[in-house]
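Catalogue entry: protein

Sequence with per-residue C-alpha coordinates
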Amino acid sequence: MSLGRREGLVKLARKYDALIISDDVYDLLQWSLTTPVSTIRPPEMRLLRICDIDRALGPCDNDPHGFGHAVSNGSFTKIAGPSVRTGWAEAAPAFIAGLARAASTRSGGAPSQLCAAMLAEVVENGQLQRFVDETVRPALQQRHGLMIDAIRSHVSPLGARTRAASLKGCDVFGGYFVWMDIDSDFSTKFIAGVLRSEEDIIIGHGQMFTVHGDEESASFDKSVRLSFSWEAEEDIVDGIKRIGLALARIQANKEYYLKVASAPSNIG
Protein backbone atom coordinates (compact mmCIF):
# COMPACT_ATOMS: atom_id res chain seq x y z
CA MET A 1 0.00 0.00 0.00
CA SER A 2 1.44 3.38 -1.00
CA LEU A 3 2.16 6.07 1.58
CA GLY A 4 -0.69 8.19 0.23
CA ARG A 5 -3.21 5.38 0.60
CA ARG A 6 -1.95 4.64 4.11
CA GLU A 7 -2.45 8.25 5.12
CA GLY A 8 -5.89 8.28 3.55
CA LEU A 9 -6.91 5.12 5.42
CA VAL A 10 -5.77 6.54 8.76
CA LYS A 11 -7.67 9.78 8.16
CA LEU A 12 -10.77 7.78 7.30
CA ALA A 13 -10.46 5.79 10.52
CA ARG A 14 -10.07 9.00 12.50
CA LYS A 15 -13.11 10.53 10.84
CA TYR A 16 -15.35 7.60 11.78
CA ASP A 17 -13.60 6.73 15.07
CA ALA A 18 -12.60 3.26 13.81
CA LEU A 19 -9.63 1.09 14.74
CA ILE A 20 -7.26 -0.24 12.06
CA ILE A 21 -5.59 -3.53 12.97
CA SER A 22 -2.76 -4.08 10.51
CA ASP A 23 -0.71 -7.22 9.99
CA ASP A 24 2.16 -5.21 8.55
CA VAL A 25 5.15 -7.39 9.34
CA TYR A 26 5.45 -7.83 5.57
CA ASP A 27 6.78 -4.27 5.47
CA LEU A 28 10.03 -5.80 6.75
CA LEU A 29 10.09 -8.30 3.88
CA GLN A 30 10.36 -6.14 0.75
CA TRP A 31 12.87 -6.42 -2.08
CA SER A 32 13.67 -4.92 -5.46
CA LEU A 33 12.43 -6.51 -8.67
CA THR A 34 15.16 -4.94 -10.76
CA THR A 35 18.34 -5.75 -8.81
CA PRO A 36 20.07 -9.04 -7.96
CA VAL A 37 19.42 -10.77 -4.65
CA SER A 38 20.79 -8.44 -1.98
CA THR A 39 20.80 -7.68 1.74
CA ILE A 40 20.27 -3.96 1.03
CA ARG A 41 16.91 -2.41 1.94
CA PRO A 42 16.65 0.97 0.16
CA PRO A 43 14.46 3.88 1.35
CA GLU A 44 11.51 3.08 -0.92
CA MET A 45 11.07 -0.12 1.07
CA ARG A 46 10.90 1.72 4.40
CA LEU A 47 7.47 3.34 4.25
CA LEU A 48 5.84 4.60 7.41
CA ARG A 49 3.51 1.99 8.84
CA ILE A 50 -0.14 2.77 9.51
CA CYS A 51 0.40 2.93 13.29
CA ASP A 52 3.35 5.32 12.74
CA ILE A 53 1.20 7.63 10.61
CA ASP A 54 -1.57 7.63 13.21
CA ARG A 55 0.84 8.70 15.95
CA ALA A 56 2.52 11.27 13.68
CA LEU A 57 -0.82 13.00 13.02
CA GLY A 58 -1.13 13.83 16.72
CA PRO A 59 -4.23 14.04 18.94
CA CYS A 60 -7.70 13.55 17.47
CA ASP A 61 -10.82 15.38 18.70
CA ASN A 62 -12.88 12.18 18.97
CA ASP A 63 -10.14 10.38 20.93
CA PRO A 64 -9.78 12.29 24.24
CA HIS A 65 -7.98 9.40 25.97
CA GLY A 66 -5.33 9.09 23.27
CA PHE A 67 -5.93 5.43 22.41
CA GLY A 68 -5.25 6.13 18.73
CA HIS A 69 -6.89 4.64 15.68
CA ALA A 70 -4.31 2.07 14.54
CA VAL A 71 -2.45 -0.88 15.99
CA SER A 72 0.28 -2.96 14.37
CA ASN A 73 -0.29 -6.63 15.12
CA GLY A 74 3.07 -8.21 14.23
CA SER A 75 4.17 -11.84 14.26
CA PHE A 76 7.67 -13.15 14.87
CA THR A 77 6.55 -16.35 13.17
CA LYS A 78 6.91 -14.59 9.80
CA ILE A 79 10.42 -13.27 10.37
CA ALA A 80 12.07 -15.53 12.96
CA GLY A 81 10.65 -19.02 12.38
CA PRO A 82 7.33 -20.79 11.73
CA SER A 83 7.21 -22.49 15.13
CA VAL A 84 7.82 -19.41 17.25
CA ARG A 85 4.11 -18.55 17.63
CA THR A 86 4.84 -15.23 19.30
CA GLY A 87 3.77 -11.76 18.28
CA TRP A 88 3.87 -8.12 19.33
CA ALA A 89 1.65 -5.06 19.17
CA GLU A 90 2.59 -1.43 18.50
CA ALA A 91 0.19 1.46 19.03
CA ALA A 92 -0.35 4.60 21.09
CA PRO A 93 0.96 4.32 24.70
CA ALA A 94 -2.57 4.45 26.13
CA PHE A 95 -3.69 1.59 23.87
CA ILE A 96 -0.67 -0.58 24.78
CA ALA A 97 -1.19 0.13 28.49
CA GLY A 98 -4.79 -1.04 28.19
CA LEU A 99 -3.74 -4.14 26.27
CA ALA A 100 -1.18 -4.96 28.96
CA ARG A 101 -3.89 -4.79 31.61
CA ALA A 102 -6.24 -7.16 29.76
CA ALA A 103 -7.21 -10.28 31.71
CA SER A 104 -5.52 -12.64 29.24
CA THR A 105 -2.22 -10.85 29.83
CA ARG A 106 -2.45 -10.21 33.56
CA SER A 107 -3.56 -13.71 34.51
CA GLY A 108 -0.81 -15.66 32.77
CA GLY A 109 1.76 -13.23 31.48
CA ALA A 110 2.89 -13.73 27.89
CA PRO A 111 1.03 -16.55 26.12
CA SER A 112 4.41 -18.00 25.07
CA GLN A 113 6.80 -16.98 27.80
CA LEU A 114 9.81 -19.08 26.79
CA CYS A 115 9.76 -17.98 23.13
CA ALA A 116 9.06 -14.39 24.16
CA ALA A 117 12.09 -14.37 26.47
CA MET A 118 14.39 -15.75 23.76
CA LEU A 119 13.05 -13.35 21.15
CA ALA A 120 13.51 -10.39 23.48
CA GLU A 121 17.20 -11.23 23.64
CA VAL A 122 17.74 -11.53 19.88
CA VAL A 123 15.77 -8.32 19.30
CA GLU A 124 17.88 -6.39 21.82
CA ASN A 125 21.25 -7.68 20.60
CA GLY A 126 20.42 -7.15 16.92
CA GLN A 127 20.59 -10.79 15.86
CA LEU A 128 17.00 -10.85 14.64
CA GLN A 129 17.49 -7.77 12.44
CA ARG A 130 20.61 -9.31 10.92
CA PHE A 131 18.77 -12.58 10.35
CA VAL A 132 15.98 -10.78 8.49
CA ASP A 133 18.39 -8.66 6.44
CA GLU A 134 20.98 -11.32 5.63
CA THR A 135 18.95 -14.54 5.48
CA VAL A 136 15.15 -14.23 5.34
CA ARG A 137 14.67 -11.40 2.83
CA PRO A 138 17.38 -12.54 0.35
CA ALA A 139 16.01 -16.11 0.46
CA LEU A 140 12.48 -14.89 -0.24
CA GLN A 141 13.73 -12.66 -3.06
CA GLN A 142 15.49 -15.63 -4.65
CA ARG A 143 12.45 -17.91 -4.34
CA HIS A 144 10.06 -15.26 -5.61
CA GLY A 145 12.23 -14.74 -8.68
CA LEU A 146 12.26 -18.46 -9.40
CA MET A 147 8.47 -18.67 -9.13
CA ILE A 148 7.84 -15.65 -11.35
CA ASP A 149 10.26 -16.92 -14.01
CA ALA A 150 8.58 -20.35 -13.94
CA ILE A 151 5.11 -18.80 -14.21
CA ARG A 152 6.18 -16.73 -17.21
CA SER A 153 7.59 -19.81 -18.91
CA HIS A 154 4.99 -22.45 -18.11
CA VAL A 155 1.71 -20.77 -17.09
CA SER A 156 1.49 -17.28 -18.60
CA PRO A 157 1.26 -18.68 -22.16
CA LEU A 158 -1.97 -20.36 -21.02
CA GLY A 159 -3.55 -17.04 -20.02
CA ALA A 160 -2.42 -16.67 -16.42
CA ARG A 161 -1.44 -13.26 -15.03
CA THR A 162 0.41 -12.20 -11.90
CA ARG A 163 0.73 -8.87 -10.15
CA ALA A 164 4.07 -7.39 -11.10
CA ALA A 165 4.72 -5.42 -7.91
CA SER A 166 3.31 -5.16 -4.41
CA LEU A 167 3.58 -1.37 -4.40
CA LYS A 168 1.97 0.58 -7.24
CA GLY A 169 4.46 2.63 -9.21
CA CYS A 170 7.53 0.90 -7.72
CA ASP A 171 9.55 -2.15 -8.73
CA VAL A 172 9.16 -3.67 -5.27
CA PHE A 173 7.67 -6.93 -4.05
CA GLY A 174 7.40 -8.55 -0.65
CA GLY A 175 5.81 -11.19 1.53
CA TYR A 176 5.36 -14.92 1.08
CA PHE A 177 2.82 -15.28 -1.70
CA VAL A 178 2.09 -14.60 -5.38
CA TRP A 179 -1.48 -14.01 -6.50
CA MET A 180 -2.17 -15.43 -9.94
CA ASP A 181 -5.29 -14.88 -12.08
CA ILE A 182 -6.28 -17.76 -14.35
CA ASP A 183 -8.32 -17.17 -17.50
CA SER A 184 -10.45 -20.31 -17.59
CA ASP A 185 -14.02 -21.54 -17.91
CA PHE A 186 -13.53 -23.27 -14.57
CA SER A 187 -13.37 -21.78 -11.09
CA THR A 188 -10.03 -21.90 -9.33
CA LYS A 189 -11.70 -24.02 -6.65
CA PHE A 190 -12.30 -26.69 -9.29
CA ILE A 191 -8.79 -26.26 -10.71
CA ALA A 192 -7.35 -26.64 -7.21
CA GLY A 193 -9.26 -29.91 -6.88
CA VAL A 194 -7.82 -31.16 -10.18
CA LEU A 195 -4.31 -30.25 -9.05
CA ARG A 196 -4.78 -32.01 -5.74
CA SER A 197 -6.18 -35.22 -7.25
CA GLU A 198 -4.07 -35.44 -10.42
CA GLU A 199 -0.80 -33.75 -9.51
CA ASP A 200 -0.71 -33.99 -5.69
CA ILE A 201 -0.29 -30.18 -5.56
CA ILE A 202 -2.13 -28.09 -2.98
CA ILE A 203 -2.80 -24.42 -3.72
CA GLY A 204 -4.96 -21.74 -2.12
CA HIS A 205 -7.91 -21.10 -4.43
CA GLY A 206 -9.49 -17.66 -4.38
CA GLN A 207 -12.77 -18.62 -2.72
CA MET A 208 -10.84 -19.48 0.44
CA PHE A 209 -10.16 -15.77 0.91
CA THR A 210 -13.65 -14.45 0.20
CA VAL A 211 -15.59 -12.84 3.03
CA HIS A 212 -18.71 -14.97 3.38
CA GLY A 213 -21.81 -12.88 2.85
CA ASP A 214 -19.86 -10.21 0.96
CA GLU A 215 -18.84 -12.16 -2.13
CA GLU A 216 -20.13 -9.50 -4.51
CA SER A 217 -17.79 -6.81 -3.14
CA ALA A 218 -14.63 -8.82 -3.72
CA SER A 219 -14.61 -12.01 -5.75
CA PHE A 220 -11.49 -14.15 -6.24
CA ASP A 221 -13.15 -16.90 -8.27
CA LYS A 222 -10.45 -16.69 -10.94
CA SER A 223 -7.47 -16.24 -8.61
CA VAL A 224 -5.11 -18.50 -6.69
CA ARG A 225 -2.52 -17.76 -4.03
CA LEU A 226 0.83 -19.53 -4.41
CA SER A 227 3.40 -19.78 -1.64
CA PHE A 228 7.08 -19.51 -2.52
CA SER A 229 8.32 -19.42 1.07
CA TRP A 230 7.76 -23.03 2.16
CA GLU A 231 8.92 -25.36 -0.59
CA ALA A 232 12.50 -26.03 -1.69
CA GLU A 233 13.64 -23.99 -4.68
CA GLU A 234 13.62 -26.97 -7.06
CA ASP A 235 10.11 -27.91 -5.92
CA ILE A 236 8.84 -24.40 -6.65
CA VAL A 237 9.88 -24.67 -10.29
CA ASP A 238 8.63 -28.25 -10.59
CA GLY A 239 5.28 -27.32 -9.04
CA ILE A 240 4.72 -24.43 -11.44
CA LYS A 241 5.60 -26.64 -14.40
CA ARG A 242 3.02 -29.21 -13.27
CA ILE A 243 0.39 -26.50 -12.76
CA GLY A 244 1.01 -25.45 -16.36
CA LEU A 245 0.68 -29.03 -17.57
CA ALA A 246 -2.59 -29.45 -15.66
CA LEU A 247 -4.03 -26.20 -17.06
CA ALA A 248 -3.06 -27.28 -20.58
CA ARG A 249 -4.69 -30.65 -19.98
CA ILE A 250 -7.90 -29.00 -18.76
CA GLN A 251 -7.97 -26.75 -21.83
CA ALA A 252 -7.35 -29.65 -24.21
CA ASN A 253 -10.02 -31.83 -22.59
CA LYS A 254 -12.60 -29.17 -21.79
CA GLU A 255 -15.68 -31.34 -22.38
CA TYR A 256 -14.43 -34.05 -20.05
CA TYR A 257 -13.68 -31.60 -17.24
CA LEU A 258 -17.01 -29.83 -17.75
CA LYS A 259 -18.72 -33.16 -17.09
CA VAL A 260 -16.57 -33.70 -14.03
CA ALA A 261 -17.36 -30.20 -12.75
CA SER A 262 -21.11 -30.70 -13.23
CA ALA A 263 -21.17 -34.06 -11.45
CA PRO A 264 -23.04 -34.14 -8.09
CA SER A 265 -19.79 -34.79 -6.26
CA ASN A 266 -16.89 -33.42 -8.27
CA ILE A 267 -13.21 -33.15 -7.41
CA GLY A 268 -13.49 -29.39 -6.83
